[in-house]
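Structure in, sequence out. Go:
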């Protein structure tokens, strides 16, 4: 079945642009301006081109599948001209609503693009994702395909670095965590899965545990969770699923 991602973007001048197109399940896909002809806007154009020079203040992503029930939001970065993440958007499934403010306004530049990772909810191993925002204003996203009953390291969406390599000496102040399996991370047994993403230091001591949202048909978008923890160079971020 087809899966679509739609993105509403609102700017400081009061203008709004609607982005929508088909996306590939399990692969981050660029979402361009809606070309259905319903709205008086140019279609099929990248974010950075259609909104160049404006200040993005609010945005939200919605994942829609034909059956209306098993599309799930994982993460949605805005990629900058240099290939780095310049912002991250909140999102949800078919029933989710809202248009939250960004962590900080973003000046739109030609070359920027919105990428959306969508998944399908099922009783199987899925991609776990963690989006973080730091005190210095940096945004990073970490993800990995979980492996049943196996601790698996999560790496950055840009550069495939560990959390310690990507964010050494940064202080995380909030995060979004997603995992869209039907029954969560710890499905069957206590010993084979851990029902949260976990951050550890170089000695294996746990520094943070982060519950995941399914990113599906709940009426709320995946929230930013306010929590503060500092990242050191040898820290690791992991997931251990059970299906």
């Amino acid at each position: 079945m087809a899966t679509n991602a739609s993105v509403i973007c609102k700017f400081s001048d009061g203008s709004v642009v609607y982005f929508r197109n088909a996306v590939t399940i399990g692969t981050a896909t660029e979402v361009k301006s809606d070309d259905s002809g319903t709205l008086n806007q140019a279609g099929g154009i990248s974010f950075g081109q259609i909104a160049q020079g404006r200040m993005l203040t609010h945005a939200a992503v919605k994942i829609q599948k034909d059956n209306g029930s098993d599309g799930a939001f994982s993460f949605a970065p805005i990629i900058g001209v240099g290939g780095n993440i310049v912002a991250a958007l909140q999102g949800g499934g078919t029933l989710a609503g809202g248009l939250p403010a960004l962590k900080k306004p973003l000046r739109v530049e030609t070359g920027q693009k919105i990428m959306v990772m969508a998944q399908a909810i099922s009783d199987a191993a899925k991609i776990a994702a963690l989006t973080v925002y730091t005190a210095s204003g940096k945004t990073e996203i970490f993800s990995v395909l979980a492996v049943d009953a196996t601790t698996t390291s999560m790496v950055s969406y840009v550069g495939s670095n560990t959390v310690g390599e990507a964010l050494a000496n940064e202080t995380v102040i909030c995060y979004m965590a997603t995992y869209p399996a039907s029954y969560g991370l710890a499905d069957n047994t206590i010993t084979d899965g851990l029902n949260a993403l976990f951050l550890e230091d170089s000695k294996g001591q746990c520094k943070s545990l982060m519950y995941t949202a399914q990113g599906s048909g709940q009426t709320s978008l995946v929230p930013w969770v306010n929590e503060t923890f500092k990242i050191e160079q040898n820290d690791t971020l992991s997931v251990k699923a059970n299906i």
